[in-house]
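TASK: fixed-backbone design
INPUT:
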């Protein structure tokens, strides 16, 4: 199978996100899969599809530092990005990719791990979707469905600005921010830390494409984007900067709050599942879920699956067992995949919001 490889080089911050969003929209059932490699010319902050920006990002700092904030169509957490990350975007027609999201990660992470190993970095896959070097993270990945495409995003980490990352995130105090910065320094690593000298990008790409060919059973062929793909990328830039999209989670929360009536209260909680942070806003009445909003830095396929899951839990009794069973059944019924997040995790978050820890 041919793998079309498009190396965009260094582009604007917005375009570094728009390239894979746009090309994914052009994918059809008969398309060849695509691998994009790209880096942003200037820094920015990127938030996951299901996150609440107001809860995760220090917008005042970002504005003062001229850091734009974009919401991607992929799950995961808020992250500071700059030219020191070389993004890799695998874009496959859905029928040519693994059927289940849990199988995407080991398959597409393996070429990255092998490339790091060949460069002298002792990287390995750590479920659900991380790459680690002796217990320190050197990269995360994310999966999404965009149009008729399955998308797997990742990066090669040349270096990482932990100080700016810590400033970008919303934290309860400056003391906490200092601790966050130290934790990032301790827990994250990069090629700059692991190697005497990071490799030229040409060498890294040569190794990576050879590993893609071996692991994925494809024939990588470097090409230029088509006119249709360029047009789709241009449209994606407009879509990603549309305030309606950027603030989508905030609008859901406003709509939820409007429904509060006598005897009904809006409460919030969070729970750290293996697959990411699950945050819930709950309206409960008479011991049952009346309205529910689920957000966080997890992966969810299809993109609207988390909202449909929350809707299925309306009317369910506020008990750990009832919620866990209902959530598991709903995910199965709706074909919703949340790697590393189970019905029990959803139930635990909801019960905490209800003031009844599991």
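OUTPUT:
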């Amino acid at each position: 199978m041919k793998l079309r490889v498009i190396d965009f080089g260094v582009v604007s911050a917005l375009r570094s996100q728009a390239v894979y969003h746009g090309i994914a929209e052009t994918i059809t059932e008969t398309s060849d899969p695509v691998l994009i490699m790209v880096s942003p010319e200037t820094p920015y902050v990127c938030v996951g599809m299901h996150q609440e920006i107001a809860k995760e990002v220090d917008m005042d700092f970002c504005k003062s530092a001229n850091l734009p904030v974009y919401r991607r169509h992929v799950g995961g957490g808020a992250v500071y990005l700059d030219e020191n990350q070389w993004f890799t975007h695998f874009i496959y027609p859905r029928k040519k990719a693994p059927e289940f999201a849990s199988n995407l990660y080991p398959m597409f992470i393996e070429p990255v791990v092998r490339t790091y190993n060949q460069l002298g970095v002792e990287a390995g896959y750590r479920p659900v979707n991380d790459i680690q070097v002796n217990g320190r993270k050197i990269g995360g990945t994310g999966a999404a469905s965009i149009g008729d495409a399955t998308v797997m995003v990742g990066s090669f980490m040349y270096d990482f600005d932990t100080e700016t990352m810590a400033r970008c995130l919303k934290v309860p105090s400056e003391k906490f921010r200092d601790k966050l910065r130290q934790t990032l320094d301790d827990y994250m690593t990069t090629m700059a830390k692991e190697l005497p000298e990071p490799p030229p990008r040409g060498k890294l790409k040569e190794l990576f494409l050879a590993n893609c060919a071996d692991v994925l059973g494809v024939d990588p062929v470097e090409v230029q984007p088509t006119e249709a793909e360029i047009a789709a990328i241009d449209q994606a830039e407009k879509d990603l900067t549309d305030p309606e999209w950027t603030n989508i989670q905030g609008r859901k929360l406003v709509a939820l709050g409007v429904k509060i009536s006598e005897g009904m209260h809006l409460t919030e909680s969070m729970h750290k599942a293996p697959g990411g942070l699950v945050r819930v806003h709950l309206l409960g009445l008479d011991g049952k879920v009346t309205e529910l909003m689920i957000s966080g830095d997890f992966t969810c396929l299809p993109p609207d699956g988390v909202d449909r899951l929350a809707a299925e839990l309306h009317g369910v009794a506020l008990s750990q067992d009832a919620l866990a069973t209902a959530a598991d059944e709903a995910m199965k019924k709706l074909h919703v995949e949340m790697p590393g997040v189970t019905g029990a995790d959803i139930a635990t978050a909801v019960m905490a919001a209800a003031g009844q820890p599991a």
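COMMENT: The chain has a mean pLDDT of 94.
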